[in-house]
Specification:
heterodimer, A: alpha+beta, Beta-Lactamase, Phosphatase 2c, domain 1, 3 domains, six-stranded antiparallel β-sheet, five-stranded antiparallel β-sheet, rod-shaped, B: alpha+beta, Heat Shock Protein 90, 30% helix, 19% strand, globular
């Protein structure tokens, strides 16, 4: 028996059919790896069933069995081709009829309850699943958006017609006909095999369109970056970046117009910062606004929305997208019947950088225009990259602003440094020491020792009110005038009056300065002191081991052209020390909020009077640093020390 | 953060206000020389950091306060001192100004005046408002604009408080800080 079957198989069509269905299984199993929806697996199972059916028919060559199996095969085909369309009765009704017919034949073959059952008629029932297999995908063609559905739709007609021809051959020739089994059935298997080619074709074209999509995306990103990058010029203007960005997005999404909104710096709101094309506003325009394009566009350009207010405020608050593919999708304000005013299709996407919404982009089409899913994707993509461009621009501006402040501070420091004496002069019987420590960005202290004769010098310590370049310019004025006039033998009070007259009211900048002047004759130890609003000088008297504070009530330079200044005379003996300083020394504050004070300064003199003038200045500096610790230095600090060696 | 109320802000009298805490504040004192007010102002403002944007406005406000102390507090008596404590950062300006005068006697009158003025402003009664354009105390002269205090109370939005003797006023201004976008609500 088995031998006979093998013999007949090897001589007949069975071998061809088995070979074909095995190839089918292999083909569908292979294709299964290329899809995720499972339909190829289904076809592989179908091919497996065909193998079993053919083997079974070889053992049991009953027409009933064959017809029943045919009905089962078409039922399965119908199911595989259409279940993804999610149609209810259109699938289940033909499937049920098909199954009933198959069961009827099978039971009749087993129990013979209806010997006269016209087998051909039942076989013809297979036309019903074949028809459904063609009609369902055609009727649902609009839904054909997955690979499996596309496959069903693309193969529906050729496959349906082929199946009908196969069915007709079966009806005409009868299942047992060698011609049918030898030619029609293998051809039908070939037809099923062709489904695989359809599938490959579909996935191939999907791949091509995906590549096209990404190519376009890359193109649009390139456009965006080259447009926004072009705005970064030596004179950088944020507006240029935003303008080129909105233009790129409008162009790439095919919109009629678009806007960019940025979150406001100090308010809980977003403002329109750039507009391109005709953007039909999705928000209500005031009734009073004339409906001409210029006025409306100007209005839109200056619109501001509180966070959460309207569609645009909502996007800026929540970071959620708005996509209205065509008019009516999303409720928008009615601004009248003008086509250019009626927002139909609208896209609004947030600009997000590091979990912060920095703004939003919105594009729109007027009237009946519509957006596709692809336009929406494009906008999201451009918004993602655009937000990086905007954030970078902000960082650039901030850095530029900081560097402006730094540059000004550096210029002022340079001026101040160039005014400071390179080397203090040496007079017989007198030694000098000094230090100045500028506070970052302040640059208002000034000191000098100007030798005016073999044994005579003028000591000057001053402090300009204000800071930065403006202050350093006043320093230049005071210093220049001083150098010009110190050659006279006039008393220092007169010199102060001249400086004051030279500075006051001459230029239109603030130019107040305190200035203390001391002239010294090193042969006699005679000192003359005059003061314009500056700190008192302190003198250490070695004889008495005492600190003497010499103060004079006076007003600073720059207040009044006619200010008279007085002077005091005193004498320095050997070992005496005179110190001039600025308020930055005695007002230096430590972490406890305590000021250094004049008393501390006096204590240092009393302690270190035996050191040289230069060493004393160094000690003052060290003690001051110890005192303030890590506290911020808020003002320039300057000390000038003179010690009598006679 | 933002105070949108249009309710009149009265000048407060509160000796124990935290604004009188001088801890960590820089300090200077000046003679009451009217000619030097601009100079004193510069000395104070020069310690403000460069990143305060509206530094000129700050300068102007400080100048007004010093002017008040010199002129109305110490009556321009050069022997009397104006003491100033100050602290600045890019986020705040805090100032305490003390004079040796007899104190701001008309404080209640001023508050009352301001209240009425605000009411007229709200009611948009501009005709009646004409009488309330500026406040002039009994000691005011033709150089007093009468508007400085309105502007000051408005400017020093963090508080404008007198001590009980009313010769010392503490004030605070908070500078709005730049926001960089809106925090994305994390979706729980």
């Amino acid at each position: 028996m088995v031998w006979e079957i093998i013999a007949s198989a090897s001589s007949g069509s069975l071998l061809v059919k088995l070979a074909l269905s095995t190839v089918l299984i292999a083909a569908f199993l292979f294709l299964r790896k290329r899809e995720t929806e499972g339909s190829m697996g289904g076809y592989a199972i179908l091919a497996g069933l065909l193998v079993l059916r053919d083997l079974g028919f070889a053992f049991l060559p009953s027409p009933d069995f064959y017809v029943a199996s045919e009905l089962a095969v078409f039922g399965l085909l119908l199911y595989l081709a259409t279940y993804t369309f999610q149609v209810a009765w259109a699938l289940w009704v033909p499937l049920s009829i098909d199954a009933c017919a198959a069961l009827l034949v099978a039971f009749n073959a087993s129990f013979r309850f209806a010997p006269a059952l016209p087998l051909a008629a039942v076989h013809a029932v297979a036309a019903i699943p074949i028809a459904a297999l063609v009609l369902i995908p055609l009727a649902k063609r609009a839904d054909a958006d997955t690979t499996a559905r596309e496959l069903s739709l693309a193969s529906a007609l050729p496959f349906g017609l082929g199946s009908l021809a196969y069915l007709a051959a079966g009806l005409a020739l009868g299942p047992a006909s060698p011609v049918y089994q030898g030619i029609a059935v293998p051809l039908f298997y070939g037809l099923i095999f062709s489904l695989g080619f359809f599938f490959v074709d579909i996935t191939q074209s999907q791949l091509v369109s995906a590549v096209e999509y990404y190519e376009e995306s890359i193109d649009s990103l390139y456009d965006l970056l080259s447009a926004t990058g072009g705005a970064i010029k030596p004179a950088f203007v944020m507006q240029d970046v935003l303008d080129s960005m909105v233009r790129a997005v409008v162009e790439r999404s095919g919109a009629d117009g678009g806007i960019i909104l940025l979150a406001d710096e100090f308010e809980e709101s977003v403002s329109v910062r750039a507009l391109s094309g005709t953007y039909p506003p999705p928000f209500k325009l005031p009734e009073s606004l004339p409906k001409n394009e210029e006025r409306v566009s100007a209005f839109v350009r200056h619109s501001r929305f509180k966070l959460g207010e309207g569609i645009l405020g909502e996007v800026a608050q929540t970071g959620k997208h708005v996509f209205s593919s065509a008019a009516g999708d999303v409720q928008m304000a009615d601004n009248g019947d003008e086509v250019w005013l009626s927002a139909g299709a609208l896209i609004a996407v947030p600009l997000i950088v590091q979990d912060r919404i920095i703004g939003a982009i919105s594009v729109a089409k007027t009237g009946e225009g519509s957006f596709t899913e692809r336009d929406f994707d494009r906008c999201k993509l451009l918004a993602n990259f655009g937000s990086i461009a905007v954030a970078n621009s902000f960082s650039y501006l901030e850095a530029a602003e900081r560097s402006d402040i730094e540059r000004e501070a550096a210029i002022a420091e340079n001026i101040q440094r160039s005014l400071a004496p390179q080397k203090l002069p040496e007079l017989p019987g007198m030694s000098f020491g000094a230090f100045t420590s500028p506070a970052r960005g302040v640059c208002s202290d000034f000191y000098d020792v100007i030798q005016t004769g073999p044994s005579r010098a003028i000591l000057a310590v001053g402090d300009v009110a204000g800071k930065g370049v403006a202050a350093s310019l006043v320093l230049v004025m005071v210093s220049s005038i001083l150098h010009l006039i110190t050659n006279s033998a006039k008393e220092v009070a007169v010199l102060l009056q001249w400086v004051n007259r030279g500075v006051t009211g001459k230029v239109d900048i603030d130019h107040y300065a305190t200035l203390g002047l001391v002239s010294v004759d090193s042969r006699t130890g005679e000192i003359e002191f005059s003061n314009a609003g500056h700190q008192p000088v302190i003198v250490y008297r070695q004889d008495a081991d005492e600190i003497e504070t010499i103060d004079m009530k006076s007003i600073p330079i720059g207040v009044d052209r006619g200010t008279p200044y007085a002077s005091k005379r005193l004498g320095l003996k050997g070992g005496d020390v005179l110190v001039m300083y600025t308020d930055g020394i005695i007002e230096a504050m430590n972490a406890q909020g305590k000021q250094f004070g004049r008393k501390n300064l006096g204590n240092i003199l009393q302690r270190d009077h035996s050191l040289s003038a230069r060493e004393i200045a160094q000690r003052i500096r060290d003690d001051l640093l110890d005192f303030v610790g890590s506290s911020h230095q808020h003002d320039d600090q300057t000390v000038l020390v003179m010690k009598s060696k006679r | 953060m933002r105070d949108n109320s249009t309710a009149p802000k009265p000048i407060q009298v509160d000796e124990n206000s935290p604004l009188f805490d001088k801890t960590g504040m820089l300090h200077k004192e000046f003679p009451s020389d009217f000619r030097q007010i601009r100079y004193f102002t510069l000395l104070i403002v020069q310690s403000a950091p460069p990143d305060i944007k509206e530094i000129n406005l700050l300068e102007q406000q400080i100048s007004e306060i010093i002017k008040n102390a010199v002129k109305h507090g110490n009556k321009c008596n050069v022997e009397k001192k104006v003491r100033i404590w100050y602290s600045f950062s890019s986020e705040h300006a805090h100032l305490i100004v003390e004079d040796e005068g007899s104190g701001f006697k008309d404080l209640e009158k001023w508050n009352d005046f301001n209240k009425k003025r605000q009411k007229l402003l709200e009611g948009q009664d501009y005709e009646a408002l004409a009488d309330f354009v500026s406040y002039r105390g009994a000691a005011a002269d033709e150089n007093d604009g009468g508007n400085a205090l309105f502007a000051a109370v408005e400017y020093w939005s963090g508080g404008f408080v007198f001590n009980s003797k009313r010769n010392c006023v503490a004030m605070l201004k908070r500078f709005p800080q730049k926001r960089k976008g809106v925090e994305l609500e994390s979706e729980a």
